[in-house]
Amino acid sequence: MKALSKDECKKKASEFLKGNVKEVHVTSDGQVFYNKNLATNHKDKRNLTLYSFPEVEEKEKVVVLTIAQLTEQIATITDKAVLEQMATSEKEGQNRTGALKAIEERISKITE
């Protein structure tokens, strides 16, 4: 069996980080544990890698807007710093040309 990468384990963990669950542990064979001691025992017996994941950070709970929704939302924003942060987030996230263009146009409009 192929060992899972940290990103693959993180994806698996995100499926279990719901409700009151604050942390899960995933071994490189794809087993998910709520109890770190059990996860460590499993890892040690099979010579695996163990990854622990806290609950999903707020920045990962981003709502993705369509470009039309984004354009509508930014029409009321007059703070250049906020718009620049939105552009940075877009570049680091989906990096959509249309979204970046809409943000840049809004920045140009408020700085005229």
Description:
With 112 residues, the chain is mainly alpha-helical. The chain folds into 2 domains: 6-56, no CATH class; 67-110. It has 5 helices and 3 strands. The protein has helices spanning 6-16, 36-46, 67-74, 80-92, 97-110; strands at residues 23-27, 32-33, 50-54. A 3-stranded antiparallel β-sheet has the order 2-1-3, sandwiched between helices. The longest helix has 14 residues, at 97-110. The chain is elongated and about 65 Å long.
State the helical fraction. 40-55%
Distance N to C terminus: 60 Å
- Average of the residue pLDDT scores: 85
The helix tally amounts to 5
Largest sheet: 3 strands, antiparallel
The helix-and-strand class reads mainly alpha
Number of strands: 3
Strand order of the largest sheet: 2-1-3
Q: How many structural units, i.e. domains?
A: 2
Q: Which range does the strand content fall in?
A: 5-15%
**Net shape:** elongated
Low-pLDDT windows of residues: none
Radius of gyration: 20 Å
| Helix-strand string | HEEHEHHH
